[in-house]
Amino acid sequence: MASSMINGAENLNLISGRTPKGLAFIGSEFHRKCFLSKGLVSYTRNFNAKTRTLNCSLSSSRPVSQPRFIQHKKEAFWFYRFLSIVYDHVINPGHWTEDMRDEALEPADLYDRNMIVVDVGGGTGFTTLGIIKHVDAKNVTILDQSPHQLAKAKQKEPLKECKIIEGDAEDLPFPTDYADRYISAGSIEYWPDPQRGIKEAYRVLKIGGKACLIGPVYPTFWLSRFFADLWMLFPKEEEYIEWFKKAGFKDVQLKRIGPKWYRGVRRHGLIMGCSVTGVKPLSGDSPLQLGPKAEDVEKPVNPFVFFLRFILGAIAATYFVLVPIYMWLKDQIVPKGRPI
What does the pLDDT average to over 141-150? Predict the structure, then answer.
């Protein structure tokens, strides 16, 4: 696995190595766009290695503070009310394969079957099936706000011993210093306040515990950026790092993942594009202080506005259902070894 390191807050530095065409890293803080190889990315202040500084340009995204159409708990609830019917048959084959899942969970360091693990936003339990390869099911809790997704998880025989509960990723029903591992895959894109969710991840972990958050990456292709900003949250890689560090995590690392038939191309973004990990260095709550929640789920909504947002978000989602089909066809047509 190729590895990339980013040094300091002044420059983006790339360890000498081959850079595949079309693989973009976008830095809003640094006002640059850089191309790095798929692998492990981390932020460090000092490290001794020969590096090559790249001059890059910014490709901006819609601010996180402006939620997308399905980046609301209520819209996400109804979105999954229908998507849960076909989730395991439509989403997983194109965006979240077993190989991707196992690769993304590797940095979580699930080495002990007696670990206490929480799978936040666990949905139908697809990621949980990867977790229980390494941890006893009785020690795993699946949490999701969608009862329809959880109903699918309950039907899976290997997950019968897991605790399955409804809950909010931004307000977890677990005590402080509770779990050895926090896993969340394909959930952050629906969080109105991702920093709050990562702060909660810090709180529920024991000292020395590790959080592993798996989520989308922001596209660089203009049309994909447009639909991403309509649909749900596609964070940039450095945004993940910043959220983890602000919450108090140490040893923060980011590992890039993707379907094999994407052949390294990330210009359209990926619904499952990176696995970010961090270690909790101290017991107790996160040192980060936040204000009120970004979304009040009890607040009444205008039915017309809700319906319009839901339809527009669903249309944007359709684009990202078609993208993997397009990429798979290109992989079949374009000879191996040629960039696509």
Answer: 90
In angstroms, the CA 189 to CA 178 distance is 25
Beta-carbon count within 10 A of 12 CB: 23
Terminal-residue alpha carbon distance, the chain: 20
**Residue 15 CA: distances (Å) to CA of 44, 104, 126, 263:** 13, 23, 35, 21
Beta strand pairing status for 117-120 and 140-144?
Answer: parallel
* Sequence-ordered list of residues with C-beta below 8 angstroms from that of 281, at least 6 positions apart, any chain: 207, 208, 248, 249, 250
| Tokens representing residue 94 in the block | 């194109």
Contacts of 223 (CB under 8 A, 6+ apart): none
pLDDT in tens, 257-294: 988 877 766 888 888 899 999 999 999 999 999 987 76
- Provide the sign of the torsion angle of the four alpha carbons 74, 123, 215, 317, taken in this order: negative
**Homologous superfamily of 73-279 in CATH?**
Vaccinia Virus protein VP39 (3.40.50.150)
Q: In degrees to the nearest 10, what's the CA dihedral of 18, 186, 319, 274? A: -10
Tracing tokens 């204000």 back to the chain, one arrives at 291
Please give the DSSP secondary-structure letter assigned to residue 178: -
Sequence spans of domains, the chain = 3-53, 73-279
Give all strands (DSSP E) within the chain, no chain letters. 3-7, 13-15, 25-27, 32-34, 40-44, 51-53, 117-120, 140-144, 163-166, 179-185, 205-217, 250-256, 270-279
Distances from the Cα of 152 to the Cα of 87, 88, 103, 126, 195, angstroms: 9, 9, 24, 10, 28
Cβ burial 314-335 (10 Å sphere, 16+ → b, else e): bebbebbeebbeebeeebeeee
Of residues 214, 247, 241, 265, the one with CA closest to residue 29: 241
Distances (CA, A) of 198 to 96, 182, 188, 189, 247: 22, 10, 9, 12, 7
List, in sequence order, every residue forming a beta bridge with 18; answer none if it has no partner.
none
Which string of b and e fits 92-105 if b means at least 16 CB within 10 Å?
bebbbbeebbebbb
| Reported confidence tier of residue 305, pLDDT bands at 50, 70, 90 | low
